[in-house]
Design brief:
Elements lengths: L35 H9 L21 E7 L20 E9 L7 E2 L14 H13 L3 E8 L9 H18 L3 E6 L19 H17 L4 E4 L29 H6 L6 E2 L9 E2 L5 E2 L4 H13 L1 E3 L2 E6 L8 E5 L11 H13 L17 E5 L1 H6 L3 H10 L2
Parallel strand pairs: 1-2, 1-13, 2-4, 4-5, 5-6, 6-7, 12-13
Antiparallel strand pairs: 2-3, 8-9, 10-11
Helix pairs in contact: 3-4, 6-7
Length: 399
């Protein structure tokens, strides 16, 4: 998600997503928010991320409404370096950006703290591990985010799949992390010609990724936290176009996350699609919606919570996710990515999705008070912007 760019068949995007290393101005600090309300919410939902839903999965505990943010851990940019210990308690899920492969098809994921030459004041490994433990003791989840704009990952072989599992597991064990975030961008996921059923994928990079994530879940058990941060191109665009299409002329990446999400829906803690760096996307109303407005977030989120026909086929519907599995992904500021949404518009979207009020021209197919919350690229950029994103989240949910 560093400056990401969204790819939409005939439309372009140039967004920094959770993975963007866009370079810009310098940061500022802010006082820590109170932990009490967050801990109370954690206790309330101690049954797991799906505690308010019916289902078979008990995922890692999260507050009813969670704030998710990416932390530039392995690199620096204009937003400035932020030590993990200095991340305010507002943040419930901290995505460490990024774990990246040694080569696109190796499956060998590596992660290291930012070099001191690039990030003056970077913590030692011992300090970092202590910060991970302290965040967890405060009820937070700390995850390894894999991929980002620069970290293309294609598990083309069973050997690459197995290397992915072992290398990611080694990083989780070394730092004591809670799980992983899959932020595959670019050409990491695409569908082979003839792979037309999201329920039964045949493309090796898709099949091997699903298998790898299931292996990690089995290894670490029910408390393993799994999140995903795809772009709209790989999810909601699948409503119109899926893979290369019946005649082979479409972008094979269109909707390519759908089989991964579907296969792992019982293991998935959170899906926070990047509602930025995106071209216009058609909603369930048959109209195109443009990023940066409440309307866009309502339409894109409604598709996830109501389900949608894939490639326009009413007999091939991607089923709705549970509200507790869905958060909205947003850039923290105008510097962080294309499609920044002002706080007032963010709150309009939340009012509509949670309460059914102030929905504007798009009427969603229900209300979802248990929709999980918001994700942002990034914690660093929010710090740079005076914590506007986190403050607005806390104010809206009165934490």
């Amino acid at each position: 998600m560093r400056p990401h760019r969204t790819r939409i068949r005939t439309r372009t995007r140039t967004h920094p997503r959770p993975g963007s290393r866009a370079r810009v101005p310098r940061p500022r600090g802010r006082a820590l928010a109170s932990l009490a309300a967050g801990l109370a919410a954690v206790a309330l939902l101690a049954g797991g991320a799906h505690a308010t839903d019916t289902g078979t999965t008990t995922a890692a505990a999260l507050p009813q409404h969670a704030l998710v943010g990416y932390l530039h851990t392995s690199f620096a940019n204009g937003s400035g370096y932020t030590r993990l210990a200095d991340v305010p308690d507002d943040w419930d899920v901290i995505q460490l950006a990024f774990g990246e492969p040694t080569s696109t098809t190796s499956g060998d994921i590596r992660f290291a703290l930012c070099p001191a030459t690039e990030c003056p004041g970077v913590e030692t490994e011992a300090e970092f591990k202590a910060a991970v433990a302290a965040k967890q003791a405060a009820g937070k989840k700390v995850l390894l985010s894999i991929g980002g704009q620069n970290g293309q990952v294609r598990l083309t072989t069973a050997a690459a799949r197995d290397t992915f599992v072992s290398s990611v597991g080694a990083i989780i064990d070394r730092y004591g992390l809670d799980g992983v975030d899959i932020d595959f961008e670019g050409h990491s996921l695409s569908l082979d010609k003839g792979d037309t059923d999201f329920r039964n994928p045949t493309t090796p990079v898709v099949v091997h990724l699903i298998s790898a994530l299931k292996s990690l879940k089995a290894r670490y058990g029910q408390d393993f936290t799994l999140t995903m941060a795809p772009e709209t191109f790989f999810v909601q665009l699948g409503h119109q176009f899926y893979g290369s299409g019946p005649w082979g002329g479409q972008d094979p990446r269109a909707g390519a996350y759908l089989p991964v999400i579907h296969a792992l829906r019982d293991d998935l803690t959170l899906l926070h699609v990047q509602d930025y760096n995106s071209g216009p996307i058609m909603g369930l109303d048959g109209q195109y919606h443009t990023m940066g407005t409440a309307d866009f977030h309502i339409a894109m989120t409604d598709m996830l919570l109501a389900g949608f026909p894939v490639a326009g086929d009413a007999n091939n519907v991607f089923p709705a996710l549970k509200p507790s599995q869905v958060a909205i992904g947003l850039p923290a500021s105008t510097y962080a990515g294309n499609g920044h949404t002002p706080p007032a518009e963010v709150n309009k979207a939340l009012d509509c999705l949670h309460k059914g009020t102030g929905c504007g021209t798009y009427e969603p197919h229900g209300t979802w008070p248990d929709m999980r919350g918001l994700m942002t690229w990034s914690i660093n950029w929010d710090r740079f912007g005076g914590w506007e994103f986190a403050k607005n989240f806390d104010s809206y949910y009165a934490r």
